Amino acid sequence: MKSVKQLLDTKQSIIISVTENISVLDALKVMTEKNISAVLVMEDEQLSGIFTERDYARKIILQGKSSRDTLIKEVMTANPITIRLSDSIDHCMELMTDKHIRHLPIVENGEVKGMVSIGDVVKFIIADQKQTISQLESYISG
């Protein structure tokens, strides 16, 4: 069974985060610069939440709030569901499907190690399946 650690080893693991007291507008600027749809919210190197485009749409736009005047801590998803490096990719898929979420922060012994998105998981599974198919084809034709 493939693990989160194996997935993380295949991607560039840069932790992009903002603090709780940054404005939503400034967080959106960070997300745009980095071309990401979610950003971790951290205080003193501890994960306190996650802010996503979905949070923006539902908690700012639809509620008529100002992204310039609203702080991330007011609209972030506090205490997000997290995973560990030893968790299986299947477990990640189950969490994402059951909880209707697209991003899972990776936390090991209180330390943030990264984050995986649904796109990361799907890409990893496809690559793994291609490798398995290639090995089976080699075995059959060999």
Write the topology of this structure.
Blueprint: H1 4-9, E1 17-18, H2 24-34, E2 38-43, E3 46-52, H3 53-61, H4 72-75, E4 77-78, H5 89-99, E5 103-108, E6 111-117, H6 118-141
Parallel strand pairs: 1-2
Antiparallel strand pairs: 2-3, 3-4, 5-6
Keywords: CBS domain
Protein name: CBS domain-containing protein
InterPro entries: CBS_dom, CBS_dom_sf, CBSX3_CBS_dom, Diverse_CBS-Domain
Structure characterization notes:
With 142 residues, this protein is an alpha+beta fold. It has a single domain, classed as CBS-domain (Roll). 46% of the residues lie in helices and 21% in strands. The chain has six helices and six strands; from the N terminus they run H-E-H-E-E-H-H-E-H-E-E-H. Strands 1-2-3-4 form a four-stranded mixed sheet. The longest helix is centred in the last third of the chain and has 24 residues. The chain starts with a helix and ends with a helix. Keywords: CBS domain. This is CBS domain-containing protein. It comes from Pedobacter suwonensis. InterPro entries: CBS_dom, CBS_dom_sf, CBSX3_CBS_dom, Diverse_CBS-Domain.
